[in-house]
Amino acid sequence: MHKVFVFGTLKEGFPNFATNKGVRYPGDFQTKNRYPLYLVGDRYSPWLILNRGYGHQVQGQVFLVNDDVLRQMDMLERIHAADGYRRVELTVVDKATGEEIDVFAYGKPLDQLYGARIQQEVPGDYTLAHSALYRSRQAVA
Question: Which residues does the UniProt record annotate as the domain Gamma-glutamylcyclotransferase AIG2-like (predicted)?
Answer without folding.
Answer: 4-109
